[in-house]
Amino acid sequence: MRSSPFILLCSTGLFAIFSSTISKSPVLPMFASHLGADPSGVGFIASVSAFTGIVASIPAGILSDRFGRKRMLIFSAMVFSTAPFLYLIASNIWQLAIIRFYHGLATAIFIPVSMAMVSDLFHTERGEKIGWFSTSTLAGRFMAPVIGGSIIGAMVFNPGLSYKTVYLVCGVSGIITMAFALRLPKTEKKQAGSMPLREALKSFREVITARGILITSAVEASILFAYGTFETFLPLYSINAGLSAYEIGIFLSAQVITLAFAKPVMGRFSDRHGRQPQIFGGAIIGAICIGSFAFFKTFFPLLILSILFGLSLSIVTSATSAFIADLSRKETHGSAMGILGSIMDIGHTTGPLFSGIVAYYLGYGVSFAGAALVLVTAAIVFRFSTVKQTG
């Protein structure tokens, strides 16, 4: 049976993000420690792939505008299918850092280019389809820690062997990613597949100077700043409040499940009712949620806030990508999504960093309030900007 291009792309996304996530959660800190890394070394290793995302997303988007989406997605799949096997021969943290940089290229290329491909394929249903694509990647992101953790738990008698087994599973998933990527449609003729370099750089300047694209990307970065604060410090805050690790796991899982189920619905909502009010409203709800965590210390209020925060994340992110696609020409979707990916990674990376400094000196409650302030500021700037929706 012949699968539709969109189903193939979602299948590629599921296995790609599963492969990416199982390589780091929960195995990476343990593997780095196994190779002799101290806590600062573990933090360094964990940040390498995020750094790759910041520096590589924009070039990946530009190259996809010039050479076509499928070529770049196949290149990304090549990294997904080869990088996991390099972990098997790593013997020190510097080798591990180089492997993480190489492996990080896969996701840094895949996310913006695949989002650009979805934007190319759909216009009137763009928000809903981006939502379904994100849900497929979230399924991979949700399953990976469960399977990786189960492997490590089952082979606790031999940690070194358990880590290698996890990376073998990661490699198999990368190979499946390649198999799906090779079946993706050839869209080069529909895009500027042979776009000259000068034209590609001109197109990039067009989107990098578009205020609407930059402000919308900043809103997404801000809510990921808050999300980074949530996923890093809510567990520590909850432990201090006397809650168990099991209850914390429920918070995090509930947030991911809410996000996965709500994204297509909210994407469709933005298609029918406009993206700007949804982005602003979602950001305000997210700010209220992240800022309210410090007022509660029992299970059910924190669970409800986690679910609402996941909902706000879906409200904003299901509309921002589609809105940026609306604001850019089809020939520049890759560059626009690359800018979004890079700015988004900056927000996700700096959230735990700055909130950690605030939490160290002023406590977790102030760090949650600080994340809320960042998000509210971005929402207000977005609301009162002169952004005009063109889609």
If you had to describe this structure to a student in words, what would you say it looks like?
With 391 residues, the chain is mainly alpha-helical. The chain is built from 14 helices and no strands. The chain has helices at residues 5-22, 27-34, 39-67, 69-86, 93-121, 126-154, 159-182, 197-208, 211-240, 245-273, 276-292, 299-327, 333-362, 364-383.
**Main sheet specs:** none
Number of strands: 0
Shape: globular
- Structural class label: mainly alpha
Please give the radius of gyration in angstroms: 20 Å
Which features does this protein show?
14 helices, about 400 residues, mainly alpha, globular
Describe the structure concisely for a colleague.
With 391 residues, the chain is mostly helical.
SSE arrangement:
Layout: H1 5-22, H2 27-34, H3 39-67, H4 69-86, H5 93-121, H6 126-154, H7 159-182, H8 197-208, H9 211-240, H10 245-273, H11 276-292, H12 299-327, H13 333-362, H14 364-383
Helix pairs in contact: 1-5, 1-6, 1-7, 2-3, 2-7, 3-4, 3-5, 3-8, 3-13, 4-5, 4-7, 5-6, 5-13, 6-7, 6-10, 6-12, 9-10, 9-11, 9-12, 9-13, 9-14, 10-12, 11-12, 11-14, 13-14
